Amino acid sequence: MARKQYHFPVTDSPFWLHVEMQVQKWGAITLLFIVVAGLCGLFSQGWLSAQTASSSDRKLTVQYDRYGRLQSDIDMQVTASATLNSRTVFTLGGDFMHDFEIRTLQPQPEKMYSQNGELVLEYARPHADQPFTVWLGLTPRGVGRSEQKIVLNGATTVAVKQFIWP
């Protein structure tokens, strides 16, 4: 009885088999790196993203995420230190009005208005001798780098830089 020989339409090439093996190996390593970076906060909230910026005189502190994703919520806390002033005015300028939409704002200000492309929040402080914090829930409007300038009572300034991923 004669053995039947089969002819396969594709011949194996050792070179391309080696290339495929290398692509799979390096692709798996790259994918693992991307997953770990995402879990650590490189693309949104997490350890790599959490940032705190303070003014030189420590009267104003901003806690925010350096990295965010388009149409995902970003939290920001703006804290004014204890002062003798009974009124506190926060001015959110730079790219703030153009790049973000405010979803939540706590506590609600007594006055809130836009002036020269900046958002102004005015508060009467019940306890001027204690720190005062405003919590903002923001949603990015676009992708890319955003630079905001947050000013306390027209004098103390903190610069905030963020990057929004698609």
How does this structure look, described?
With 166 residues, the chain is of the alpha+beta class. The protein has two domains: 14-43; 50-165, Immunoglobulin-like, CATH 2.60.40.680. It is built from two helices and eleven strands. The chain has helices spanning 14-40, 96-99; strands spanning 50-54, 60-65, 67-69, 74-80, 87-94, 100-106, 111-115, 118-124, 132-140, 144-152, 156-165. The strands form two sheets. Strands 3-11-10-5-8-7 form a six-stranded mixed sheet. Strands 1-2-4-9-6 form a five-stranded antiparallel sheet. Strand 10 (144-152) and strand 11 form a beta hairpin. Keywords: Membrane, Transmembrane, Transmembrane helix. The chain crosses the membrane at residues 26-48.
